[in-house]
Design goal:
Elements: E1 2-6, H1 10-21, E2 25-29, H2 32-41, E3 43-47, E4 50-54, E5 58-59, E6 72-76, H3 83-91, E7 94-95, E8 99-100, H4 101-104, E9 106-110, H5 116-121, E10 126-133, E11 136-140, E12 143-146, E13 148-150, E14 153-159, H6 166-177, E15 180-181, H7 188-199, H8 201-208, H9 214-234, H10 241-248, E16 252-254, H11 271-278, H12 289-299, H13 304-318, H14 328-337
Helix pairs in contact: 8-9, 8-11, 8-13, 9-12, 12-13
Pfam families: ApbA, ApbA_C
InterPro entries: 6-PGluconate_DH-like_C_sf, 6PGD_dom2, KPA_reductase, KPR-Related, KPR_N, NAD(P)-bd_dom_sf
Domain Ketopantoate reductase N-terminal: 4-159
C-alpha cells in the first residue's frame, strides 16, 4: 500500500512521519510555507522517543503524482471545512487499469467531526471513517510534534457507514507497524460521535484558554449536555467518556519531549486553538459545535451554548483575534444572553 496523506499538518504529518519511519510508502500533500519547508528540509517529527527527519515525496496537488496506483490509500487529514475541495480534486484522478480514484481507491477520513464521510460517499465508492485520538502540534512549517506514548495515536477505523473489511484491516496493520494503534471496528461512527462530544470543548479553549477556571468548565459541561441531548433525540449512538478513557488507558499517555512542545496544541491548545494561532482565517467549529446546532434545529432541541460558541469562534477566526484572548466572564455573559433562544425545527 502507498499512503497519500492529504493534509500533512499536525495529525497528517504525525501519521505520515510514523508510516515513513516504519518503512511504508508515503506521499505527503501540503501547501504554502509548509509545502516549501517539506520540500526543502523534509518532515521533522518530534515524539517522546526523539526527533527524526523524513523525506517522503511531497506534492501540492494530485496532478503532480500523475496516474495513481491501484494500491494507493487516500488519507484525508485536512480540516473538515476543506474536505469538499480536496475530495473533488482527488476523486477524478486516473488510476492505473482504467478507473478513477472515486471508483476504485479507498479514502479514509482521519478528521474530527462526522460530516466528511458523507461528503466523501457522494463521490467515492469506498469510504472509511477514522476516529482520531492523536495529540499533535504543528510547530512551524516542516515540523510537527506528537506527545503520545507508547502509541503516538489511537485511530479506530471502519467502513462507512458501518462494517469492516480486508482493506480496513490492512490499513490498521500498517498503522500499528508505525506505533499507531488502529482498532478495526464495525461501528466507527459511534466512536466519531463520541469524539465529537469531546471536541465541543475546543471552542471554549480557543476562546478563553486552557479549561482550568470553573466557569469555563461549566460552559463546556453545558455544551456537552446539549450535545448528548441532541444525539439522544436524533437516535444517534455515541461512545461514552468511560469507554473512550478505557480505550486509551495505558496506550496513549502524554510524555515530555525535547522540543518542549506538549503535543496537544503547541504550548497550550488543541486543533481550534492552533488554527486561530496560525491565523488561517477559518476554524472547524461549524462541524463540531455547529453539528450539534444543526441536529438541534432538525430535532427541536435547544442548543444555545453551542450556537454561541460557534458564532464566537467563527468571529475570532475571521477577525484574526488571538487565541485565548476572551475573558471567561465575557464568554459566560455571551452564553447567558442566548439562554432563552429556541431552535425552529425544519419543516
Amino acid at each position: 500500500m502507498r499512503y497519500i496523506i492529504i493534509g500533512a499538518g499536525a495529525v497528517g504529518g504525525s501519521v505520515g512521519g510514523r508510516l515513513a519511519e516504519a518503512g511504508h510508502d508515503v506521499v505527503l500533500v501540503a501547501r504554502g510555507a509548509h509545502l516549501r519547508a517539506l520540500r526543502e528540509r523534509g518532515l521533522t517529527l518530534t515524539t517522546p522517543d526523539g526527533t527524526r527527519t523524513h523525506r517522503p515525496p511531497v506534492v501540492s496537488e494530485p496532478a503532480e503524482l500523475g496516474t495513481l496506483r491501484p494500491d494507493d490509500v487516500l488519507v484525508l487529514a485536512v480540516k473538515t471545512q476543506d474536505s469538499e475541495a480536496a475530495l473533488g480534486a482527488w476523486s477524478t484522478r486516473p488510476v492505473a487499469g482504467g478507473t478513477t480514484a472515486a471508483e476504485s481507491l479507498p479514502v479514509v477520513c482521519a478528521q474530527n467531526g462526522v460530516d466528511s464521510e458523507r461528503m466523501a460517499l457522494r463521490r467515492f465508492a469506498r469510504v472509511y471513517g477514522m476516529c482520531v485520538w492523536l495529540p499533535a502540534t504543528y510547530v512551524e512549517p516542516g515540523t510537527v510534534a506528537a506527545a503520545g506514548a507508547p502509541y503516538t495515536g489511537i485511530l479506530h477505523i471502519g467502513r462507512y457507514p458501518s462494517g469492516t473489511d480486508d482493506t480496513a484491516r490492512r490499513v490498521a496493520a500498517g498503522l500499528q507497524d508505525a506505533k499507531l494503534l488502529a482498532p478495526v471496528v464495525g461501528d466507527v461512527m459511534r466512536w466519531k460521535y463520541g469524539k465529537l462530544l469531546a471536541n465541543l470543548a475546543n471552542a471554549v479553549e480557543a476562546l478563553t484558554g486552557p479549561l482550568v477556571e470553573e466557569a469555563a468548565l461549566a460552559v463546556n459541561r453545558r455544551a456537552r449536555a446539549e450535545g448528548e441531548a441532541v444525539l439522544a433525540a436524533a437516535g444517534i449512538a455515541a461512545v461514552g467518556e468511560r469507554e473512550h478513557v478505557a480505550a486509551r488507558a495505558g496506550r496513549l499517555v502524554l510524555e515530555p519531549m525535547e522540543s518542549g512542545a506538549n503535543g496537544a496544541g503547541g504550548p497550550r491548545g488543541g486543533s481550534t486553538w492552533q488554527s486561530l494561532t496560525r491565523g488561517t482565517g477559518t476554524v472547524e467549529v461549524d462541524y463540531l459545535n455547529g453539528e450539534i446546532a444543526l441536529l438541534g434545529r432538525e430535532h427541536g432541541v435547544p442548543t444555545p451554548v453551542n450556537d454561541a460558541l460557534q458564532r464566537l469562534a467563527n468571529t475570532f477566526a475571521q477577525e484574526r483575534r488571538a487565541a485565548g484572548s476572551m475573558p471567561v466572564a465575557e464568554l459566560v455573559a455571551h452564553v447567558e444572553r442566548v439562554r432563552g433562544e429556541e431552535p425552529r425545527p425544519v419543516t
